[in-house]
Amino acid sequence: MFSGKSEELIRRLTRARIARRRVQVFKPKLDDRYSEVEVVSHGGLRFTAIAVERSEQILGLTDDRTEVIGVDEAQFFDAGIVDVVNRLADLGKRVIVAGLDQDYLGRPFEPMPALMAAAEEVTKTRAICVRCGAPASRTQRLVDSEERVVVGAAGVYEARCRRCFEARIAPVDGSLPFPPDGT
User: Fold this and answer.
1) How far apart are CA 130 and CA 101, in angstroms?
2) Distance CA 51, CA 103 (A)
3) pLDDT at 25
């Protein structure tokens, strides 16, 4: 999180529109943090989107004339998103997918590894570690929950580098889940 994935998706989709390409964007209905009808970056950039509950709905909602398809927060989709994206690409559509490749414990966040394997190009963005300022590739959960998916932004998650990341859950009372010296 906080690495600019949605911002980069919006940037690429905006460039496609400038090039007069027909663009459609989809996002999981589960992601309603900032808007139910837009992809919104943490920095406030917005792009109109269609929210769907299941990945196969994307196929039925894609206009035949659409040339570029964006998919945000792909980690929240079911495993069928891989087939959907491949089918769209096989139809000649340019498909741009954004999502987290690891969950809050640092484990692969399906279906992203399968999407990355099927992709012709992969761009990994990194945030800045809030603890030490190094490039961050992990998402530290700050709230007490063992659910794999907890939709949230600042206050729920923060960016951490590999060294500062702790694959543990912070207590609800806000105290540190580990000693300040990192041991």
Assistant:
1) 19
2) 22
3) 98
- What phi, psi does 9 have (nearest 5°)? -60, -50
Write the pLDDT tens digit of every residue in 105-136: 999 999 999 999 999 999 999 999 999 999 99
Q: What is this structure's pTM?
A: 0.84
The catalytically annotated residue of 36, 38, 53, 73 is: 73
Q: Is 73 a catalytic residue?
A: yes
* CA pair distance 150, 87, nearest whole angstrom: 29
Q: Would you give the DSSP letter of residue 126? A: -
Antiparallel, parallel or unpaired: β 135-136 and 127-128: antiparallel
Domains of the chain: 5-118 (3.40.50.300)
The string of DSSP letters for 94-125 reads: EEEE---SB-TTS-B-TTHHHHHHH-S-----
